[in-house]
Write a structure and sequence with these properties.
Helices cover about 30% and strands about 30% of the residues. The chain is α/β, with parallel strands linked by helices. The protein folds into two domains: about 90 residues, 2-Layer Sandwich (Alpha-Beta Plaits); about 190 residues, 3-Layer(aba) Sandwich (Rossmann fold), CATH 3.40.50. Belongs to the methyltransferase superfamily. PrmA family.
Length: about 290
C-alpha cells in the first residue's frame, strides 16, 4: 500500500522534539538520515549522536490528511516547521530494495567484495564474502576502499599482517585471501572482534590463522604489514605504539584520515618511515610507507 512521507531538515537539538511530535500525530515509523554524507565514528557509550544536518523521515498511512497533519505538528512544536517536504510514495519490497543497493565491488586488480546473495562476477578472482552491517567496514567507505586497493597491490606471501582497529575484519581477511599466511586483528569493541570471527568463518579462514584481541591482550609482536583504518587523532596519539608494531623494513598503511588532516598524520610517522605520496579518494586519504 502507498504511504505519506514527511521529510524534515533538522538540527541535532531539534531531534527529540520532532521525533516525539511525529509519533504523537500518528507516524508509523520515524527514521534519522544523514543529509550531507557526514560520517560518525565510535560514539561515546550511552550516546546517540546525530549529524549536524539531519533529515527526519516519517511515514503515515496513505489516507492521512496532509494539511491537518502539518498544522497539528506545528502546534505541538510551538512554531513554524523547519524546511520540510511531503510526498506520497508507493510501497515496495523494502528488504529486496535494500539488498539491491549492495552490489559486488572490485578493489585493485584481484580483489572483490561480494554480498552473500550475489554470485561472484569473477569466480576465479579473490572473492571476499561480506554482507553490509552496522558500524563496521564493508568496503563502501572511501577509507576502506583505499586500504583494500593498497592490500591488493602488495605482495603478501610469507608476510604476517596486523589489522589495527579491525572492525569487521575486512582488511585482515582480504590480506589472508590475497596470500598472507597469518593475520591478527585488534579492536576496542568486543562486538567488532565477534564480527571479525564470523566473517573469517564465512570466508573459510581457519581461526588459527586469524586471532583477534582486545588491545590489552594484543601480543607485542611486530608484523611485516600493518594496516590501521581508524581516525586521524588516534593515529597521531598512537603513533609510537603503531610504529613499534611494524618490523624494520615492514610496510604500513593508515587511513580514516580527512585530506586536511594528512600532514599532521604524516608528520607523526615521518621520522620512522619512508612515506609514499598520499593517496586521495573523495576527500579521504591513505598514508603508506616502509619502516626504516
Amino acid at each position: 500500500m502507498p504511504w505519506l512521507q514527511v521529510r524534515l531538515a533538522i538540527t541535532p537539538e531539534q531531534a527529540e522534539t520532532y521525533e516525539d511530535a511525529l509519533l504523537e500525530v500518528g507516524a508509523v515509523s520515524v527514521t534519522f538520515m544523514d543529509a550531507e554524507d557526514q560520517p560518525i565514528f565510535e560514539p561515546d557509550l550511552g550516546t546517540t549522536p546525530l549529524w549536524s544536518n539531519t533529515h527526519l523521515l516519517a511515514l503515515f498511512e496513505a489516507d492521512t490528511d496532509e494539511t491537518a497533519l502539518l498544522a497539528h505538528l506545528q502546534l505541538l512544536c510551538g512554531g513554524a516547521l523547519p524546511e520540510h517536504h511531503v510526498e506520497r510514495i508507493e510501497d515496495q519490497d523494502w528488504e529486496r530494495s535494500w539488498m539491491d543497493g549492495f552490489q559486488p565491488m572490485r578493489f585493485g586488480q584481484r580483489l572483490w567484495i561480494v554480498p552473500s546473495w550475489h554470485a561472484a562476477p569473477q569466480p576465479d578472482a579473490v572473492n571476499l564474502l561480506l554482507d553490509p552491517g552496522l558500524a563496521f567496514g564493508t568496503g563502501t567507505h572511501p577509507t576502506t576502499a583505499l586500504c583494500l586497493e593498497w592490500l591488493d597491490s602488495q605482495s603478501l606471501d610469507n608476510c604476517s599482517v596486523l589489522d589495527f582497529g579491525c572492525g569487521s575484519g575486512i582488511l585482515a581477511i582480504a590480506a589472508l585471501l590475497l596470500g598472507a599466511p597469518q593475520a591478527a586483528g585488534t579492536d576496542i569493541d568486543p562486538q567488532a572482534l565477534e564480527a571479525s570471527r564470523d566473517n573469517a568463518s564465512r570466508n573459510g579462514i581457519d581461526p588459527a590463522r586469524f586471532p583477534v584481541y582486545l588491545p590489552a591482550d594484543l601480543p607485542q609482536q611486530p608484523a611485516d604489514v600493518v594496516v590501521a583504518n581508524i581516525l586521524a587523532g588516534p593515529l597521531v596519539s598512537l603513533a609510537p605504539q603503531i610504529t613499534a608494531l611494524v618490523k624494520g623494513g615492514g610496510r604500513l598503511a593508515l587511513s580514516g584520515i580527512l585530506a586536511e588532516q594528512a600532514e599532521e598524520v604524516r608528520a607523526a610517522y615521518a621520522s620512522a618511515f619512508d612515506l609514499d605520496p598520499t593517496a586521495v579518494k573523495d576527500g579521504w586519504v591513505r598514508i603508506s610507507g616502509v619502516k626504516r
